[in-house]
Structures are given as C-alpha cells and as structure tokens.
C-alpha cells in the first residue's frame, strides 16, 4: 500500500507525525487533496480543518485545526509548518468558546471605534476559535 508521512510542526515542536493514504488541506487557492506520489508542492495555508486518512484503518480519520502556515510536499513527505495546530482530541472546547466570545466582543468594540486594524485582528482570532471549535467537535 502506498502511503506518505504527514508531519505538522509548530514553534512548540512536532504536533503530528503519522502515515496517511490521503490528506485534505485548504490553501489560499482552495481545497487540495493529496495522495501518495503527489507532485512536489509548496503553498501557503489558510485557517482550516485538515483531514488525514491514516493507513492503519480505512475508517481512521484524524482532524487537525491548522491556523495558517505553509505546506511542503516532496517524495511522500508532507510537512505542514504552522503558527499553531491542534488535534481534535487535544482541543479544549470551553476554552475555544471563551476565545470566540472574546473575539466577538473585540470586533464590536473595534467597530464602534472604527479601528479597522483591530477589527481585522479580532476577525482572525474569531476564525481561529471557530476552526478549533469545529475540529474539537469532530
């Protein structure tokens, strides 16, 4: 069976390292599915839910909340370098919910002051919190 090694690295170290038969990521150009023997690729990633189909069981799927970064595919090694990434099993849903509420309040406050930069930062924080909630609920 053909497979590829998938590694997710953050400033905190290696967050994920398994063999997979398929992964789905979201680049800035859209959704991309990657199978073994994929052409070499380097692309920026969006905030998204990465789906990884492991080789140990066709029904075994891991979900990882990836908050941007880059992907490199070369010789059946897929490396994701991200500011932060969390596996579904590691996500604290209540903490993510609090981050979501905090971001929503920051958006309202920044909009009332017409501070576009603060609005954009809070919108990014909201997208990340929603991504973590979605992955954590899988």
UniProtKB/TrEMBL annotation:
Choose one Gene Ontology CC annotation of this protein and give it: plasma membrane
Record InterPro entries:
ATP_F1_dsu/esu_C_sf, ATP_synth_F1_dsu/esu, ATP_synth_F1_dsu/esu_N, ATP_synth_F1_esu_C, ATPsynth_dsu/esu_N
| Example GO molecular function | ATP binding
User: What keywords sit in the KW lines?
Assistant: ATP synthesis, Cell membrane, CF(1), Coiled coil, Hydrogen ion transport, Ion transport, Membrane, Transport
Q: Which residues form the ATP synthase epsilon subunit C-terminal domain?
A: 90-135
Q: How does it sit in the membrane?
A: Peripheral membrane protein
Q: What is its main location?
A: membrane
Q: Which residues form a coiled coil?
A: 93-120
Gene3D superfamilies (alphabetical): ATP synthase delta/epsilon subunit, C-terminal domain, F0F1 ATP synthase delta/epsilon subunit, N-terminal
Q: Which residues form the ATP synthase F1 complex delta/epsilon subunit N-terminal domain?
A: 4-85
Subcellular compartments: Cell membrane
- One Pfam entry name: ATP-synt_DE_N
Say which domain of life the source belongs to.
Bacteria
Q: Which family does it belong to?
A: Belongs to the ATPase epsilon chain family.
The entry describes its oligomerization and partners as: F-type ATPases have 2 components, CF(1) - the catalytic core - and CF(0) - the membrane proton channel. CF(1) has five subunits: alpha(3), beta(3), gamma(1), delta(1), epsilon(1). CF(0) has three main subunits: a, b and c.
What task does this protein carry out? Produces ATP from ADP in the presence of a proton gradient across the membrane.
Record-given protein name: ATP synthase epsilon chain
Q: Which organism is it from?
A: Streptococcus chenjunshii
């Amino acid at each position: 069976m053909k497979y590829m090694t998938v590694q997710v690295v953050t400033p905190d170290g290696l967050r994920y390292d398994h063999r997979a038969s398929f992964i789905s990521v979201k680049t800035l150009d859209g959704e991309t599915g990657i199978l073994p023997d994929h052409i070499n690729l380097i692309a920026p990633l969006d905030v998204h839910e990465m789906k990884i189909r492991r080789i140990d069981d066709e029904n075994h799927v891991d979900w990882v909340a990836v908050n941007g970064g880059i992907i490199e595919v070369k010789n059946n090694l897929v490396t994701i370098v991200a500011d932060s990434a969390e596996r579904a099993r590691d996500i604290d849903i209540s903490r993510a919910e609090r981050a979501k509420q905090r971001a929503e309040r920051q958006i309202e406050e920044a909009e009332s002051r017409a501070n576009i930069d603060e609005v954009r930062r809070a919108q990014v924080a909201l997208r990340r919190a929603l991504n973590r909630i979605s992955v954590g609920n899988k």
